[in-house]
Design a protein that fits this description.
By secondary structure, the protein is α/β, with parallel strands linked by helices. It has a single domain (6-109), classed as Rossmann fold (3-Layer(aba) Sandwich). Helices cover 41% and strands 18% of the residues. The chain is built from four helices and three strands. A three-stranded parallel β-sheet has the order 1-2-3. The longest helix has 23 residues, at 87-109. The N and C termini lie far apart (33 Å).
């Protein structure tokens, strides 16, 4: 994050950070990028959504570390093979959902 000057980016007035990870769970607190990014984003008051391949045991702990929402790309029970084959489509759909929810939240505050 330092090499990317992430503090400058986060301080620039962002409305939302979308990050991702293959799998998020209780172990994600110990060195995974989405949690580190969320911790840094909270300093600047920027909300964080993590789009992930799977949500595992203990994942709820990431909410205490700055991630505001988790979205799985899986539309239901699908195999890892199918998920990988459809990764582009599934990521696009999850990102669209994240942005629709963000927009809805902003409208409700107006």
């Amino acid at each position: 994050m330092d090499a990317l000057n992430m503090d400058d980016i986060l301080a620039s007035g962002l409305d939302l950070v979308i990050t991702g990870e293959g799998s998020i769970n209780g172990q994600s607190l110990f060195g995974k990028v989405p949690v580190g990014l969320a911790r840094r984003a909270k300093i600047y008051g920027v909300p964080v959504v993590a789009i992930v391949g799977s949500i595992g045991p203990g994942a709820e702990a990431v909410y205490e570390e700055g991630i505001d929402a988790l979205l799985s790309i899986a539309p239901g029970p699908i195999s890892l093979e199918e998920s990988m084959q459809r990764a582009g489509e599934l990521l696009t759909d999850a990102a669209h959902t994240a942005l629709c929810l963000f927009k809805l939240g902003r409208q409700s505050l107006a």
